[in-house]
Amino acid sequence: MVGMKKVLCLTIAALALTLGAYAQENGQRQRGERPDEATLVKMRTEHMVKELGLDATQEAKLLELNQKYPHFMMGPGGPGRDGHGGPGMGRPPKDDNNGDESREDRMKEIQAEREAYDAGLKEILTEDQYKTWQENRDKRPQGRPHGRQHDRQQGRAIAS
């Protein structure tokens, strides 16, 4: 009977340590560094492959397109809208104009790149897949990023 109690106590202690370590690791992953650009591109491509039911040829072409326009997936505070960033959010600043580019010009450039990305998608996807992609895109929230990290960066008080 005493041996059984020891085994039970050791099992409970091992389980508690395992769960504690898992929770800590998961918390570090959530607060840790953002994935790099290549990882985000791959994750976004895999998501779209599953979402739209793409074949291997389409997947390869989509990966190439997403690698060409990675800034549509990365934002300055991490992934934004739909968890992957929005149009031009994470694009690096241009060095050739020393900040003289007007906001309107930059928006036109971003819009042109968005249209080029959409045109590339149209070439890769079937008509039904493209329609599904548009419907899913339109359903995604487009507001400001939410969450504790964003609020901290903006200097907002966080109630715990």
Considering the chains and any ligands shown, give keywords for the structure.
0% strand; single chain; mainly alpha; 160 residues; 2 domains; 62% helix
Total strand count, please? Answer: 0
Compressed to H and E, one letter per element, the order equals: HHHHHH
The number of domains: 2
Tertiary shape: elongated
How much helix, percentage-wise, in residues?
55-70%
Strand content: under 5%
What's the multimeric state? single chain
Furnish the topology, listing elements before pairings.
Elements: H1 2-31, H2 37-52, H3 56-68, H4 103-124, H5 127-139, H6 148-153
Helix pairs in contact: 2-3, 3-4
Report what the structure shows.
This protein has helices spanning 2-31, 37-52, 56-68, 103-124, 127-139, 148-153. The chain is mainly alpha-helical and 160 residues long. The protein is elongated, with a radius of gyration of 22 Å. Mean pLDDT is 74; it is low at 75-90.
